[in-house]
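User: Can you write out an input/output pair for a complex, sequences first and structure second?

Assistant: Here is one pair. Inputs:
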Amino acid sequence: MKLGFIGLGAMGAPMARNLLEAGHELAVWNRSPKRVDPLAGAGARQADSPADAASHTRATILMVTNAEAVHEVLFGDKGVVQGLPAGAAVINMGTIGAVATTRIAKTLGELGYRTLDAPVGGSTSVAAAGELNIMVGGDEETFEEFEPVLAAMGEKISHMGEVGSGARMKLINNLIMGANMAVLSEGLALGEGAGIPVEKQLEVILAGSAASGVAQRRSGNLISGSYEPQFKFSHELKDLYYALELGRELEDPLPITAVVSQIYNEGMREHAEDDMSAVAEVYRQRVNARPVQD
Amino acid sequence: MKLGFIGLGAMGAPMARNLLEAGHELAVWNRSPKRVDPLAGAGARQADSPADAASHTRATILMVTNAEAVHEVLFGDKGVVQGLPAGAAVINMGTIGAVATTRIAKTLGELGYRTLDAPVGGSTSVAAAGELNIMVGGDEETFEEFEPVLAAMGEKISHMGEVGSGARMKLINNLIMGANMAVLSEGLALGEGAGIPVEKQLEVILAGSAASGVAQRRSGNLISGSYEPQFKFSHELKDLYYALELGRELEDPLPITAVVSQIYNEGMREHAEDDMSAVAEVYRQRVNARPVQD
Amino acid sequence: MKLGFIGLGAMGAPMARNLLEAGHELAVWNRSPKRVDPLAGAGARQADSPADAASHTRATILMVTNAEAVHEVLFGDKGVVQGLPAGAAVINMGTIGAVATTRIAKTLGELGYRTLDAPVGGSTSVAAAGELNIMVGGDEETFEEFEPVLAAMGEKISHMGEVGSGARMKLINNLIMGANMAVLSEGLALGEGAGIPVEKQLEVILAGSAASGVAQRRSGNLISGSYEPQFKFSHELKDLYYALELGRELEDPLPITAVVSQIYNEGMREHAEDDMSAVAEVYRQRVNARPVQD
Amino acid sequence: MKLGFIGLGAMGAPMARNLLEAGHELAVWNRSPKRVDPLAGAGARQADSPADAASHTRATILMVTNAEAVHEVLFGDKGVVQGLPAGAAVINMGTIGAVATTRIAKTLGELGYRTLDAPVGGSTSVAAAGELNIMVGGDEETFEEFEPVLAAMGEKISHMGEVGSGARMKLINNLIMGANMAVLSEGLALGEGAGIPVEKQLEVILAGSAASGVAQRRSGNLISGSYEPQFKFSHELKDLYYALELGRELEDPLPITAVVSQIYNEGMREHAEDDMSAVAEVYRQRVNARPVQD
C-alpha cells in the first residue's frame, strides 16, 4: 500500500523500516532530515514536506512527540492536509491525550479525511521486532482496511472502539502502570522501614499475587537505585494528568490516580529526567528508611 | 522430626498432610474435632489439647484464624506453653498482624521458647501441592533448623529477617496486591466510562506493562461481575488496616494505602463476603458507567 | 479618573455603580447591551465596543466570565487593545486561573500596557456595599496608582506581589474554602452515621476550634438539604483544578486538594448547578446515613 | 451534690475548683498526691483511693489521660466500682475514643451504674473560666440530672444522644479541626511556592470565606514558625486515628481524613511534641518554598 510516514524518532524509525520490509511503498519525512537517510537507503522515498509525504497515499502515519507537533505537521505550513487525497486516512500513533485526539479527528473529518488513533505500548527493541501492542480507535471499516498495515509493526492489534478509544486506552494503561509503580514503592518503603532489604522483598513479591509488570521490569532499578530512563518520570506524570483530564471530562472520580499524581509531582524537581521507577526515591526521601527500633 | 500442628482448616489440613508425607511425626489438634479424623487416618497422633499436641515436640506449628485464637491456643486453658518442652519453637503460620506477632514472640521468649513467624501466600490447591510461598521471620539459627520442615509445605521459603519480619512481609504483600486491585478497578471504570468494554481493556492490559498478578487471576471475576471469594474482601481490608497500623508504628506515611483502605471501606456493606476483586463494583456504583457523549 | 468598565454581570454592575458614585468618569460595555441601560442612567457613557470603552482611559477594568472571554474582549474584534492609550492599565477582576493571568499580562506588557490582576472575594450584596475583599497582583507603582480606584469597590485591598499574585491568592483562598467544605461534610456524615443529627453537630462545631467560614455560612444549607447557589459547585471544582494546575506548574504537591477535587468530581452529574455545599450530598449518598447498631 | 473527682491535671484541677465554687461537695483523688493539696485547701475532701472518692456520691467524674487510665481507676485495685453506690453515675470527661467509651459504659451498665461521656473542648484558661464546650452522651434522664453539675464547668453543654455520642462528637470535632489545619497548610505552602509571604496570605484568608478557627488561633505559629503546643501534634494524630477507627466500625468512608492522617504521620518524627499546627512544616519540608521562576 502507498503510505506516508512522518516522525522518524527512536520509535518511528524501526516502525517505518518494518513497513518497508512488509512491502509497503513509503514516503517519509522528519523534522531533522538526517534521520531520513537510513530509511531512504532501505527504499523509502524522501519527501520534502509533510504534504509531499502524504500526497498520493491511502494513509499517512504520524509518530511525533506531542499534540502541538501533530497539529503542526497536519495543519501547518505544507502540512499533511495540503497533500493527502480526499478520503484517505491519518493514522496517529503517538500518545497525545484523549481530548486532543478527539478534537483533531473532528477537524480531519470535516476536511473529508478518516482517522485512526493507534498509540503503541512497548520499547524501542519491541518496535524493532515488530511486536508492539497497538490500541486502535476508529470506525470498524477503517480499522479493517488498515489492520494489515498495523500488523507489520505490532504483534497485538486491538480495536478498542470509535475514534479516540485508542488514545483513551493508552492513558488507562499508563495510569495503571504508573499507579502500580507507586504502590510498589510505598510497600517497599514500608518494608525497608521494617528492616527488610528491597531485594528480599522483591523476591517474595515476584513469586506471588502482588507481582506486576513494573515489579518485573523495574526490579533492577529498585535494587541498584539507578534510574536509567526506559519511560521517563515526567512522561508518566504527564499521562497521569491526561488521565485526570479524561476523568474530569467524563465526570468519573479517580481518587487513587489523584493521590498518585501528587506523589510523582513531589519528585519532579529531582527525577523529571529519570525513569518513572524513581518514584521509589520520593518515598525513601520521606522515610530515610531506618531500622525498626524495638 | 517430632512436631505439633494446631489448626486443621482449609489451609492447615493439607499443610499437615504434607508434613506427614515428608516423614515427620505429627501430633494434631483442632478446635472442632471432626476435622482431625482424616489426619489421624493418615498417621497423625490425635492430641486432646494444644498442650498435649505440643508435648515432646521440637516445634509446634499454628495455623489458626487470628491473633485472639493464637493467644488462646498458646496461653489459654491447656495451652501450648503447658506442654511444649523448654527451648522448643512455636512456628506461627497464620496472618495475624505485625504488632501482635512481635508481642507474642516476646512473651514466648520470656518463657524460654523460640519463635518463627511464617505466614504463607497461596490458595488451598497450592497448599495441597506443597507449593506455598512462605515468608519467615526469626533468628538465623532457628530458621535453618526448621527450613526443611517448612520445605515440606512450600516451594519458596524466604527468610526475611528477625522475628516479626515474616508477618510484616505478608502485610506488605497484601497491601500491594489489594492496592493493585483497586488501581486496576479505577482504570477499568474510567475505560468503561469512555465506552470501552472491560474484556477489551483487560486483553490490552494483560499484554503490556500494566499487567499484574491480580489482573491475571481476577480477569474472570471482572468480566463476569461475579465474585466467588478466593481471598475475601473483608480480609483484604483487614490486612490494609494492619499495614496502616505498621506504618503508624514505624511512622512511615502510606498515602495510597490510606486512600485505598477507604475505597474498600466504602464497599464493606455490600461486598464483605465477596472476593476482594469486588472493589471494582465500588467504582461501578459511583460511575454507573455511561457511554461518552460527544 | 477616566476609566473603562467591561462586563456588567451580577458582580460587575454594582462594582461599576460604586465607581460612578466615587466620582470616576466611566465608559461601560457589556456583551448583552440591555444590562448597560441602568448604568447609563447613573451617568456612565455607553461604549459601542471594548475598544471604544478603553479609549482615552487611564485604566480599563474587566469583570467577565473566564479566560476565553478576557482574551476576546482584549484581543478580539474591536478589542480593548485597539482603543487603550499606550501606558494605560488593564485591571482584570474576574477569576480566570493563574496560568492564563500570567500569559495575558505578558502579552499586554509586550504591547506597552500595564496590568493588575485583582480578583475579588464576596457575594453580590457585598459588591453592592462596596465591601469586597480584593487581592491584587502587579508592580508596586501601578498598585499605588490604582489603589484608590479599587477602594471604591472594596473594603480590603491587599497587594499580594508581582503580576499574577492576585490570581494565585484567589485560587489558594478557594482551595481552602472548598476543602474546608469537604472536610466539614466528611465529619458531619460520620456523625450522622453515628446517629447525631447534623444541626446538633453544627452547634457544637460552630462553638469551638473546628469552626470555619463555610460552617457559618452554609449551616442553613446543610440542615435543610437545599443548595441554592451562593457559589456554584462547578465553579468551586473549576478553581480546585486551577489550583492543581498551579501546583503542577510550581511542582508543589497538593495531596488533599487532589483527593478533594475527586470528591467534587463525583458530585458533578447531580450537583453542578447547586451551591458548592452540596458536596455534603456526595457523602450522604455514599453512606445512606444509618443509625449505629450496637 | 455529693461528687467524686478523679484526675487533677492541667484541665481537671480548674474544673474541680469550679465545682467547689458552685457549692458541690467534692471528694478528690489524683495519682500524684501533691496535686491534691490546692483542692483540699479549697474545701475538697482528700480521698485515699478512687473507691474512697466515689463512695457515697451521686456521680464520680473522671478526667484522666487515656482509655487505659480510665480502666485502671474504674476497675483496678481500690477502683471506683468498689466504692460507688448502686445506681450512681460515672461521668467521663477525658477523650478516650468512641469504641473504648462504649465498651466501658457497657461494663458499668452491667454492674448497675449509669454513664455519661462528656468530653470537653477548650484550653486550660477556658477551663479556669468555667467556659468549656461540653459534648455529652447518655440517656435523657441522666443527662438532665447532671446538666447543672456540668454547667458549673462549661458554658455550652450539648446533649448529643445516647451513651458514646459525646465521645463521637469530640472525635468529629477534632477530625475537622485537624483536617482544616492541614488544608490551610497545603494552601499556604502553595502560596509560598508562588512567592506570597504567609502573613499576607493569612490576612486575606482571615478576611473571607476561607477563614477558620485554626487560621485564627494558629496565625501566630504559622508566621513565626514556632510551635509551642496548645494541642499536641501527636494528640491530633491520635484523634484522627480514633476517627478512622470509628469510620471503620460504622463502615463510613473517610478519604480526606485518611490522607490527612498520613500527612501528620509524615511529621511525627520531627514534630510529635510540637503544636498540631507544625503540620505546616511537613509541607515546607516537601517544597523548600522557592520563588516562582518566570
